[in-house]
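With this grant's support, we have settled on a layout for protein records. One resulting record is reproduced below.
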Amino acid sequence: MEAHNNRAGHIVVGQRIFGTSHGRYYYNFLLRMNLRLLRVVGLLSMGALGLTSCLNEPSYPDTPEISFETIRLQRFTVANSTVPIDSVYITINFQDGDGDLGLNTVEAQTAPYGSKDRAAVNYINTAFIKNVNAGGRFDSARTFYNYLPKRDLYSLFDHLSPTTDNRKAPLRGTLTRAYGFYLGSPYLPGQEIKFKVSIYDRALHQSNEIETTSLVIPQR
């Protein structure tokens, strides 16, 4: 009997921080902040699950498929700051028939993915806010805050395969992406938010789009 490369794992990708300063929108990677409590968010953890018995290789489409797993919010207080940070963690399940998920930073700046002037992204995330003045429907966050760029929450995740080569094999697992926002910038206490997410593989196949459940920004 032969054991096939049915690879699975769990990835936690680094957090980004978003906010405004004197009316100007800015963002920064949380990894660059000297915040001991948040540092763990940026760690990349990958566990390849070894096969303990002979298995048939699963048949997944070469276009990635994703499903919603969980969303949660955690609030952090920062030393020497009066403004707390709300961190939103989004976890999705993924599966891909040939395992070509993720781009490294070099690939992201070269064709056909991107350039040195505009790096590629492969994680497409769009925020929505409940509009209490429109029957409670969820509208794009840009409807409320027009200074937010379209690619506000778009980002890059690295190769998800636990192997170092590019051989094709089915890949499945979970991917957690964390985003940090200063309270009130842009989301206000009491606002209800949710997100829509899709991903791209290295063949530029876009997955289906999933929608998270909603959560409410807690009061201060």
Observations:
- Residues 109 and 151 are 17 Å apart (CA to CA).
- The chain has one domain: 7-216.
- The mean pLDDT is 78.
